[in-house]
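4.2 Preliminary Data

To establish feasibility before requesting continued support, the project team ran the inverse folding procedure on a target of 539 residues. The structure was first converted into the token representation described in Section 3, and no sequence information of any kind was made available to the design step. The complete token record follows.
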């Protein structure tokens, strides 16, 4: 290109990204620049280049995330965008690296894990002064790849991309996803680790978050008794992501941990509200910003079952089942407390902070349930028994959690209604309404009557209650089978459903009658299909 030739708009917009790589600038680096698998000591990261791929092709991008980065939508459809966000081309100011961290996997200390297939490109400061780190998932080998290939497949990348954005629009704290690209290369995966490897299309997602620091980022240092880098990482995190806490000190470390106990409780309350099961709540998959991170074998509750987990790897133990998530978050926080203990050297305030988690979770859960049920506020006397019986009622027969709560808003106190007419507005929520016994009906109707009495006591106008409930009970969630249908199509070269689901999930609480087909309960064919009800960590 001649020096005076006008630049393409895409070049101009991408080139103006304002990089400020504080993480690499301020934290200790691995001095070894070779890209071979190794143990990395006393360092937060290793510099590593993404592996170039044959033929990047855009599948989808999230306009809202592009906007966060001040990227003009026109630059997202261009060739340069594809080259950059697949990892083939670095923009000026990018300084790629993989992070070192450890973690407890399924309750056992697993030692060094690290970004085995995630490569951070750098951090940008947008025009509003916000810091956003950009990270490619699936961009090739790093020093932390262990026995993996550093790659990701389309299937899991569609799931990560769509779910990040769905969660955001559902109001759940989460990492974001800018883009989903095909690499043009094939990747071998044995989806259920049962000796049936298959070739799958390779893909790269660009994730975006203020930081990707995990509980395990601290654990790795304390496990090795590397106290100085432990302190450096915590001081850095406080300065960068928690500036309101003031200059780092022992007291501020404790405040930081208390804040994390609160934000983690808030995140889990949201998961419980919308029926989200993370699936792999290992401590390396827990963000120190209280964000949902690492979308692997996650799932959404269709028929309400607190013992359900989509992750086949965890099917036997059910450690990460829906109803166990609040306990696991606390267990994970306790591991983080152990990790930062060397900087604090007092057990009591750390234990007190862990107590805060319990209190915040309880309070948050009660407020959330009051919203879901359209109550003014949670009143323990009446609402503890009411919600306890609801828990039973939801499990009497197969009941779709999302539809049940959504339709509950349509119920109105009326005089003498028989069981069948009382239940009528909820019919859609039942997987086999015809199989419901008279006893089931009586028990559900009895609960509905006590619920309506409770609602009447509040005296809220019907429309006010309805709106309140609709704001807490989504009509659309990223049901497993929906994501799988988008994957099936995308694997056949048709990206339309990925983009359509992204669009639906932009307004999950709105009626969107044109998308009614995505609000239905799980179809029968999806009940036992891989990807819909069974997922593994293979991705
Ligand atoms: P996950 O279960 O996805 O949170 O991953 C656990 C650890 O395994 C992390 O250190 C990942 O970076 C790493 N990992 C997962 N898949 C791969 C892969 N295909 N290649 C290299 N590392 C991987
Ligand atoms: Mg992970």
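Position-by-position output of the design step:
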């Amino acid at each position: 290109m001649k020096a005076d030739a006008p630049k393409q708009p895409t070049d101009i917009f991408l080139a103006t990204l304002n990089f400020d790589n504080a993480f690499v600038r301020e934290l200790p680096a691995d001095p070894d620049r070779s890209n071979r698998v190794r143990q990395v000591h006393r360092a937060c990261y290793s510099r590593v280049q993404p592996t170039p791929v044959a033929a990047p092709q855009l599948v989808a991008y999230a306009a809202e995330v592009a906007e966060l980065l001040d990227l003009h939508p026109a630059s997202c459809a261009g060739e340069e965008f594809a080259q950059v966000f697949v990892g083939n081309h670095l923009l000026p100011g990018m300084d790629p690296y993989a992070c070192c961290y450890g973690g407890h996997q399924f309750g056992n200390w697993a030692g060094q894990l690290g970004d085995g297939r995630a490569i951070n490109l750098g951090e940008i400061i947008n025009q509003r002064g916000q810091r956003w780190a950009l990270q490619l998932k699936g961009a090739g080998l790093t020093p932390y790849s262990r026995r993996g290939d550093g790659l990701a497949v389309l299937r899991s990348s569609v799931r990560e991309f769509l779910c990040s954005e769905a969660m955001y629009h559902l109001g759940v704290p989460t990492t974001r996803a800018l883009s989903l690209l095909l690499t043009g290369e094939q990747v071998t995966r044995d989806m259920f680790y049962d000796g049936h490897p298959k070739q799958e299309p390779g893909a790269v997602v660009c994730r975006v978050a203020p930081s990707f620091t995990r509980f395990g980022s601290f654990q790795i240092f304390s496990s090795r008794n590397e106290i100085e880098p432990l302190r450096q990482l915590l001081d850095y995190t406080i300065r960068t992501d928690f500036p309101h806490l003031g200059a780092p000190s022992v007291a501020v470390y404790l405040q930081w941990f208390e804040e994390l106990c609160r934000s983690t409780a808030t995140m889990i309350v949201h998961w419980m509200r919308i029926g989200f099961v993370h699936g792999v709540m290992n401590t390396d998959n827990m963000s120190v910003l209280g964000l949902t991170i690492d979308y692997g074998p996650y799932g959404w509750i269709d028929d309400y079952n607190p013992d359900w987990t989509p992750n086949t790897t965890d099917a036997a133990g059910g450690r990460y089942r829906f109803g166990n998530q609040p306990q696991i978050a606390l267990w994970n926080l306790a591991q983080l407390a152990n990790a930062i203990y060397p900087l604090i050297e007092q057990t009591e305030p750390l234990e007190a902070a862990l107590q805060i988690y319990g209190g915040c979770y309880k309070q948050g859960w009660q407020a959330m349930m009051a919203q879901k049920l359209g109550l003014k506020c949670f009143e323990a006397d009446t609402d503890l028994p009411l919600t306890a019986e609801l828990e039973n009622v939801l499990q009497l027969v197969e009941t779709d959690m999302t539809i049940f709560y959504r339709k509950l808003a349509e119920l109105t106190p009326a005089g003498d209604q028989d069981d069948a007419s009382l239940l009528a507005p909820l019919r859609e929520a039942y997987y086999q309404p015809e199989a419901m016994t008279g006893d089931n009906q009586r028990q559900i109707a009895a609960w509905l009557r006590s619920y309506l009495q409770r609602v009447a006591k509040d005296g809220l106008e019907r429309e006010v209650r309805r709106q309140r409930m609709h704001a807490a009970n989504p009509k659309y969630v990223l049901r497993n089978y929906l994501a799988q249908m988008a994957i099936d199509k995308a694997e056949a070269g048709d990206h339309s459903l990925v983009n359509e689901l992204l669009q639906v999930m932009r307004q999950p609480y709105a009626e969107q009658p044109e998308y009614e087909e995505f609000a239905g309960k799980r179809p029968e064919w999806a009940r036992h299909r891989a990807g819909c009800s069974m997922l593994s960590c293979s991705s």
